[in-house]
Every structure is written in structure tokens, then in C-alpha cells.
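input
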Amino acid sequence: MNLRPMTDADWRAVRKIYGEGIATANATFETELPDWNHWDGNHLRACRLVAEESQAGGKRILGWAALSPVSRRRVYAGVAEVSVYVATNAQGRGLGKALLQALVEESERCGLWSLQASIFPENVASIALHKSCGFREVGVRQRLGKLGGVWRDVLLMERRSSITGI
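output
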């Protein structure tokens, strides 16, 4: 497995993996896949990674991670929200942890001092992943939004850098 920066050419595979996450109804409030322009405009240009493996006949993307700004206000320039998605058939192999660790390192190189993650409490694997990478639970935002007509709580987690922003 190889981690590398995401390129525009990766969008088709990234979008497919994102769709698998949406289908679980435990990864995001989103219910429809965005087009490239929408997704690209909502994520930081830096700190976009893919995990790929070599196969006979080429390479296959197994997961991705990216950061979104939490606000356009200048005071929050060093704060971003984490997205990590791993293809259904590649889960349980440590790809999520490798992606998240690399994303944390890249975010610190880019001067970000705080990362946050909004996770459905039912997504215990994602909570454990984030804790293993230094995130802590901040609190539960109750009935934050509806998904499929059902109110959902969201666990807010954060990781404060010990390298930048101190």
C-alpha cells in the first residue's frame, strides 16, 4: 500500500468510496454524491491523500482522507474538519489509521493547529480510529440533524497539535 497526494484524476475512485460511506448511513449526513467542483471547493487544496495498492494491470485506490475548513473566518485558519473513507472491501487492514496519521502530519506541516471530526456515535470503528490518532471526545451534539427523517446525534472529537499553534 502506498499513500500519496490526491489528484484530480483520482476523483472517480474517491467518489465511489465516498458513495460506499454514504450508503452505510453512519458516515455522513450527505445522501447524494457531489460532483468534482462541489467537492473540490469544499476541501482544502493541501492535505488530500489517497491510499493505493498495486495490482496486476495497474493501481487501485482503497481509501482517501481530506480536510475541510470549519470556517472562512481568518481566526479559524488553523482549524479543519477531517474526512477519512476506506473502501468497504479494504476495511480492517489499517488503511484508515495510516491515512489519518499521515493527514495529521501533513496538516501540521501546513500550519494547522486543530483538527476536528464529527462522528455518529454508532460509528464505533471511526471513534476508535480517531482516538488511536490522538483525538479526544469534546461532547455530543444532540439531534444535530436529520438523516432519512431521523434525528441523529453527532460526537465531536478534536486533536490539538503539539507542534504548531502552541
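quick obs: The two ends are 33 Å apart (CA to CA).
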